[in-house]
Amino acid sequence: MFTKTLLIDNYDSFTYNLYSFLSDVNGCPPTVVRNDVDWCALELTEFDNIVISPGPGHPASERDFGISSRAILQGGLPTLGVCLGHQGLCQLFGAHVVLAPEPRHGRNSEVFHNGRELFAGLPSPLSVVRYHSLAVEDLPDELEATAWTSDGVLMGVKHRLRPLWGLQFHPESVCTDHGHELLANFRDLTPTRRKGSAPRPRRRPRTLSPYVVETQRIERRVDSQTVYERLFAHGPNSFWLDGSSTVESEARFTIMGDASGPRAEYVTYSVADGTVLVHRSGVPDEKRRVPFFDYLDEQLRVRAVPRSQDLPFPFDLGYVGYLGYELKAEADGNAQHSADTPDAALVFADRAVVIDHADGSCYLLALSEQAHDPDNRDWMRRTARVIYRMPVTTDEAHPARPLIRSAADPRMTLRHNRETYLSKIRTCLENIRVGETYEVCLTNHAQIDVEIDPVQTFAYLRSLTPVPYAALLRFDAADILSASPERFLRVGTDRVVESKPIKGTRPRGATAAADDALRQDLLTSEKDRAENLMIVDLVRNDLSRVCTPGSVHVPRLFDVETYAPVHQLVSTVRGTLRSDATAVGCVRACFPGGSMTGAPKIRTMEIIDRLEEGPRGVYSGALGWLSINGTADLSIVIRTMVSRHGTVSFGIGGAIVALSDPDEEFTETLVKAAAMRRALTISTGRSPARAHSVSPQTESATIDRAGRRLSRAELGGVEVWVCPGVPEPMANAELVLAEALADISHVTTPVVVDLCTGSGAIALAIAHARADAGVHAVDVDPTALTVARRNIERQIRLGESPIVLHETAVTAPNLLPGLNGTADLVLARPPCIPEDEDLPTQCGEYHRRPVVGGAEGLKLARQTIVAAARLLHAGGSLVVEHRPGRFTTALALLAENKFFANATTHFDNAGEPTHTTCARTSVQYVPADVGPEPDPCAPLWAGIARNGESRGHRPTIDRRK
């Protein structure tokens, strides 16, 4: 006996998870149709019941619900609506669908139920996963509530007379308990009319081609970069897929080659005109108008070979390259934007060198129509001779870091500036709030007009952080430099498919205890787990489209993988390909990777197209190889630079969910941009030479950054970079971030960077980027209090790392009393001009704060210094920032304050004061509830009013009380 289900797909990204569960409980796969098919063309007599899937939008929308309404009202079969299906069922009988108390996406809840029918035999409460922004209220008499949350949100209904049921939560989620049992109960509520066994998929015939792969093993441990530079760096359309990570066992293999072989091809594709262009050496280019995935599948089929049994890796030659994001137009997406690079570019590699880093051997691979092909044997002899002449290495070389160097400082431009990007994040949140999407992976596009040396830059990029999927593609279309840690898809020789989505990141801690605390924080973060779960459920859905029903599973959920600079929350999803499916078919079903789109994928890609207003190109596509033996291994294209025509570009972004904070999300993009920029090199036609390098022991140095003087000072082992203030907030402060990070990337001691104007979030970003050096910073501006509290409480809880406070607000000790006595360093800029007594009391704004003079200015300056004193612990340090020509006398007189000693005013090369440093000498705090009186600084400020004659000098005062 088996039950046949009609599964109506409301263009959701979890429908095929229901498909998989229903296949298990029914004994045969359901028939899936989308909600815009012709209802009259469906033969309902072929089915026993109907399941209506979740989906984006509102059930009142014809586009969103389609034939689902007719299935409920006219189907005449037992029907189960899930999420949107549940809402539509309720609305059709008179209930109201309204905004839920809060959006709940990828988050667990306890659900109580009546224990009957769908819930028969299940515990109450039941732990379930919810994905919804809308909820049902005001049930009519025809409908009966069957399940609800502790706060009264309806989770289940049944029709009192008809065989209709609804579930607001998702029984098919990997984190919902007893999901199979729920669907089995629905099956048992269905009269079964069918006997026999379900039909099995037909095995796709596979015809082996006349090709053979010849191999040769060379026992010699050599450096990957040396092999690439000696053999392939100057060849046409070369590739270097670098395996240098210890996290992935198969990342022990490096694959490299080019398109110089006699059977090699360089293949590109344009979505806009649907044309495949095939370039072969010595013959005219071939053009074919055919969908690219169809072309790729055909070519791999006609060249198919059995796996080489004597190789320890699955790669048996084949296609190597990238699939750009805009190829989504051939995988359920729209052709909305056109990239300036090909939408796909791959080399058909008929020859390659593979390095096994585990045993130090090299393998030479060559494709031919016959064994012992003379041309291939000659190539192997010549290649082996070159390898044997290379020096033996014990470890991979770590090249000197190439830095930006040019006469004119290259500037980074973003497609969307801060305000525009924040606005787009808010639009994402509104789409989430009204149920159009659960998660949006929004990205920005960064561009720098600069020439690079691709090989040297990639060599540095791979040395920064060994990752499983580092890659260099030197193609005619562009140079691609990737440091991706994320697996998109691997198809093994056993036809097992694996994807490893990454969502959730934390920096490494300065000590073992702090590192473990950060790891645990990531592991238990509700926001990060929700992001990760949404993509895990999406990937399960995509794989279920091509895998044997019941084979898709999650062997590792919410696993923390640790790399040199970060911890990442990674899950592993696996399944077994159906006998009629291929590796290319699997890629098409899953493309683009859900971790770069969000969910539901199709609707969310439409939102992305509207918001991003331009193509992503190579970024967020896939990169790697598809072999002629039916295997494949591809990464998600993140942390990747594209260099062409004197311009380097890269994508930066993050997942926006209901719990996202716009400022935090934008800051995260800046951190990612800065990390990419650190690896850049400007090609000068000679080997890269080290740019300016400032030793941590150097007492002071100044670097001119496009007219902004950036000064450095030592402060108790902490290196402080200060950019002088300017009268107006920096409109391009986000661009300065990457420049400053490039300047300090060599520092090994704790670092604090303050870009002064408009820089609170940027100071946080820089500290986050340098967390490997034990740096933590907190912006305690009241406007960023939510962010500040979250960061500061974590740092106080860890108790291991330096705490740095930036832009101390006068009210900060009152707003965050737990900070008192905790700070190692305070960066302060009193929002006033106390020396200018001739200024009016109110004279405009400086960084969104009033700029005042006279007595009011003295009062605000005094309060700021007192606030700093409260925050610092004994031995902590204060840095007071200057506007050029301001505060000189006041800052020098800090030495007379009982709170501070060793005050030194610092100047740049042009003689402008940049900042003053001094040390906290006691812990005589001013209680938060007392306020600034009695004023310990009164003598100081009285002296300021009398000593204007000191202005313009360079006082260095070293006094101890």
Q: What does it look like?
A:
It is a single chain. The protein is α+β, with helices and mostly antiparallel strands. Among the domains are: 5-188, Rossmann fold (3-Layer(aba) Sandwich); 212-242 and 257-388, 4-Layer Sandwich (Anthranilate synthase), CATH 3.60.120.10; 700-950, Rossmann fold (3-Layer(aba) Sandwich). 25% of the residues lie in helices and 29% in strands. The strands form six sheets. Strands 10, 11, 12, 18, 19, 20, 21, 22, 23, 29, 32 and 33 form a twelve-stranded antiparallel sheet that branches. Strands 13, 14, 15, 16, 17, 24, 25, 26, 27, 28, 30 and 31 form a twelve-stranded antiparallel sheet that branches. A hairpin with a 2-residue loop joins strand 35 and strand 36 (718-722). Helix 16 packs parallel to helix 17. It is globular. The chain starts with a strand and ends in a 15-residue tail after the last helix. 54% of the residues are buried. Residues 400-409, 681-816, 831-852, 882-899 and 921-961 have low confidence and may be disordered.
